[in-house]
Amino acid sequence: MIRIAIQSKGRLNEESLALLQSIGIEVDTPKRKLLSKSLTFPIEALYLRDDDIPQVVAGGTATLGIVGLNEVEERGADVDVVCRLGFGACRLSLAVPKGEAYDGPSWFNGRRIATSYPEILGKYLKKNNIDAKVEVITGSVEIAPAVGIADAIFDIVSSGSTLIANGLKEVETVFESEAVLIANKDRGAEEQAVIDDLLFRIESETVSRGKKYLLMNLPKSSLDEAIKILPAMRSPTVMPLANEDWCSLHSVIDAADLWTKVRQLKAIGAEGILVMDVDKIIL
Ligand code: PRT
Ligand code: ZN
């Protein structure tokens, strides 16, 4: 049985549990327990604040953890980042009041920057030879310039709407983050075997995310063109039909390309196009 630390509430909680559920691992939700064993996989979930997850994994209280890469970097935790998980995407950026004539990173010399991420910011300032004062605050960083605590902020940005709502503009992106699976460095062979199984399942889940399965009838004369439109994993599957001039074509594509590809396929004679969700892809 290995232990995985998961955010107890907050932005990563739901998607962490949804990921586990999608790969066949059911655990009780944190509202009920701090520690919860899965009945379907040799794992137990430990629910914590995200700030504590990197250290808990580094120290071995949990073998695994799901947390933002920004927290791992900020805490300087000595853990292995096993894989990126494709959710919780955000960036750590510098932002200044929108009326400022910003002319590059040297603008920050002699200014005060409010942040909850002093380590990542400190490294950036050092690397760029900027002499700024870092004001550490733990919440509502975006209001710091308006209330006079700081001249600028360094904070998490996702859509950018919080910055706009507070009269700020993003001027430098310093760190790109997303949720990651982290592991204790001293794990044994037995723990590694469980992690390998988990990784195999996660990969099939992340590969299938945002994919659509397409199935259509196509004149055989258009097959070469269709294959150019649909690269698929190796190549599209082609099946014969009772009418020898036609075939059935199956392929997996990125959902983002769906409407462009469908129009191109229609233009070369495809008919009866079925579009289906993809549950898992095992490569
Ligand atoms: O209680 P606990 O300590 O566990 O949670 P928390 O309040 O410290 O963290 P939480 O739940 O807010 O975020 C957890 C993780 O989600 C972060 O460490 C990031 O890795 C990731 N993440 C992804 C985000 C965002 N997107 C995000 N948009 N974390 C915070 N935000 C906040 C940001 O601080 C800012 O206030 O959302 C605002 C900006 O969002 P936009 O969309 O307006 O730009
Ligand atoms: Zn936190």
List keywords for this structure.
283 residues, alpha/beta, D-Maltodextrin-Binding Protein, domain 2, Alpha-Beta Plaits, six-stranded mixed beta sheet, five-stranded mixed beta sheet, 28% helix, flat, binds phosphoribosyl ATP, binds zinc ion
Descriptive account of the structure:
The protein has three domains: 116 residues, D-Maltodextrin-Binding Protein, domain 2; 88 residues, D-Maltodextrin-Binding Protein, domain 2; 68 residues, Alpha-Beta Plaits. It is of the alpha/beta class. Strand 2 and strand 3 form a beta hairpin. The chain has a six-stranded mixed sheet with strand order 2-3-1-4-11-5, sandwiched between helices. A five-stranded mixed sheet has the order 8-7-9-6-10. The relative contact order is 0.14. The protein contains nine helices and 15 strands. The radius of gyration is 24 Å and the shape is flat. It binds phosphoribosyl ATP and zinc ion.
Q: Could you say which overall geometry the principal axes of the C-alpha atoms support? A: flat
CATH superfamily of the largest domain: Periplasmic binding protein-like II
Poorly predicted regions: none
* Spatial ordering of strands, largest sheet: 2-3-1-4-11-5
What is the assembly state of the chains in this entry? single chain
